[in-house]
Write a structure and sequence with these properties.
Elements (H helix, E strand, L loop, with lengths): L4 E4 L9 H15 L4 E6 L11 H11 L9 E2 L4 H13 L3 E4 L3 H4 L20 E4 L5 E6 L3 E6 H4 L4 E3 L7 H11 L4 E5 L5 H11 L6 E5 L24 H11 L13 H11 L8
Parallel strand pairs: 1-2, 2-3, 9-10
Antiparallel strand pairs: 4-5, 5-8, 6-7
Helix pairs in contact: 1-8, 6-7
Bound molecules: zinc ion.
The site of zinc ion has 5 residues, from loops.
Length: 282
């Protein structure tokens, strides 16, 4: 049987908060409960969004929690050549086209493909979109059940490289997950529908498909998703133990009062014995 390899891939746009910790804990427990590996990748591809020091602080807190990762941390900013060569291969296959439309022009609607008919636009200085087929994509999510959709209708041809040269989240994450040998991806529910793009790309690039589980988002008192941009409380080494307990409750684990103050190594051992492995029905 294939070894399970899970991963946690935070964006260093701030420290860990309860929402991102839940994703880390769930992916960690689900891999370890299957005797699998757990890897960490820092998704620092968009340098403009990076907050200096946050990658270091995320790793520091994971380490303090006793969540040991396997192998070296992968930094997306060091994988640019891989993304570039995949983009080149897609250009060669005539699956990409340059687009000059602004976000304002599209107004959040599915991209209608205006630029797909234009000739002579530069591939170097414009955003690049993927020419989609009208196929239905589906997968079984370990938390959410069956998810399906037709991307051509849902988003239209989506961007894989921005005009400023930054590769999209979708293409970079799909390439790295393949190269890192990842077999299952547990992350927040806000990314569930983006997974359709990822599966579309995996098929296009002859990559293997992964198992997916999208955990419920952690929301603030007003019902909004906790986010770094929204000022979510950053977890420090001092607050890490308490945060781990909160993450357990959010993930449906119910530690008894006696162990609530135990060190995180004890908490993790307990959680591993309680964790029910997520297994999406095929
Ligand atoms: Zn366009």
């Amino acid at each position: 049987m294939q070894q399970t390899i899970g991963r946690f891939a935070p964006t260093p746009s701030g420290g860990l908060h309860l929402g991102s910790l839940c994703a880390a804990v769930a992916s960690f427990l689900n891999s370890r409960a299957q005797g699998g590996l757990w890897k960490v990748r820092i998704d620092d591809i968009d340098k403009a969004r990076e907050v200096p020091g946050s990658a270091k602080s995320i790793l520091y807190v994971l380490d303090a929690l006793g969540m040991e990762w396997d192998g070296p941390v992968v930094y997306q900013s060091q994988q640019i050549d891989n993304y570039a060569s995949v983009i080149d291969s897609l250009i060669e296959r005539q699956l990409l086209y340059p687009c000059t439309c602004t976000r304002k022009k599209i107004r959040g609607k599915p991209y209608p493909g205006n630029c797909s008919y234009l000739k002579g636009l530069s591939f170097a200085n414009n955003q690049l979109r993927l020419r989609l087929e009208e196929s239905r994509i589906s997968f079984n999510d370990a938390y959410l059940g069956r998810i399906e959709g037709v991307l051509k209708k849902e988003s239209g041809d989506f961007i894989v490289k921005r005009a400023d040269g930054v590769f999209s989240y979708d293409i970079s994450t799909v390439i790295d997950d393949e190269l890192m040998g990842i077999t299952e991806i547990i992350r927040g529910a806000d990314l569930a529908r983006l997974t359709l793009r990822h599966i579309y790309l995996q098929n296009l690039l002859s990559f293997k498909e992964n198992n997916y589980g999208h955990i419920p988002l952690v929301c603030d008192a007003t019902g909004k998703k906790l986010s770094k941009q929204g000022g979510a409380t950053v977890i420090t080494v001092n607050s890490a133990q308490k945060a781990m307990v909160n993450a357990f409750f959010h993930l449906g684990l119910h530690p008894k009062t006696e162990i609530l103050r135990e060190p995180t190594s004890v908490l993790l051992t307990w959680a591993l014995s309680e964790w029910k492995v997520l297994n999406p029905e095929k």
